[in-house]
Design brief:
The chain is of the alpha+beta class. The chain is built from five helices and seven strands, in the order ααββααβββββα.
Length: about 170
């Protein structure tokens, strides 16, 4: 999982950003609520389990799975490994990988938890991608288009690799 061949990312147009906001906000029955919160620079609580779900990952798991604690290296490794958007909430030491709404098939790990239907996730504006600006949450790996989600197989591999690394460190 230490591959650092970061996919090429282009700067999004305003139309592309608006499409992404619409898609994310569409997880709610009243999407305008999320858009209003983002417009004010705040965090929007999005519903999980319909358009997308999330997997909550501990920082130690991500650092073990990516082989680094430096945000620039972690971001590159996550982008390459998962091929989808990931939030980081430094204040609570968690990462959130956005996944398809189906429940995952990996084996249990104390370092990862699937969050699906009946869960909400606080999501910052899509422009918030700098760790210095988003202590409550920022996009470590930004959304690049509507429907952009992490590859569940690749996520399972990261979880297994990170879990094994952490278990080895405990022995």
């Amino acid at each position: 999982m230490n591959t650092v061949d970061t996919p090429v990312v282009h700067r999004l147009t305003e139309s592309e950003r608006e499409s992404i906001r619409d898609w994310l906000a569409g997880s709610l029955n009243r999407p305008q609520v999320a858009k209003d919160q983002w417009e004010k620079g705040g965090i929007a609580a999005l519903a999980l389990g319909r358009r997308f779900s999330a997997v909550r990952l501990t920082e130690p798991l991500v650092y073990a799975g990516t082989g680094s604690r430096m945000s620039v290296h972690v971001t590159r490794a996550l982008a390459s490994a998962l091929r989808g958007p990931v939030l980081h909430a430094p204040s609570i030491q968690r990462f959130y990988a956005f996944t398809p709404p189906a429940a995952p098939t990996w084996e249990h790990s104390p370092y990862a938890e699937y969050l699906g239907r009946d869960n909400y996730l606080g999501v910052p504006p899509i422009e918030l991608t700098d760790p210095e600006d988003g202590l409550e949450g920022y996009w470590a790996v930004p959304v690049t288009r509507p429907g952009d989600l992490c590859d569940p197989t690749r996520l399972a591999a990261l979880i297994v690799a990170g879990s094994l690394e952490l278990k080895g460190a405990e022995s």
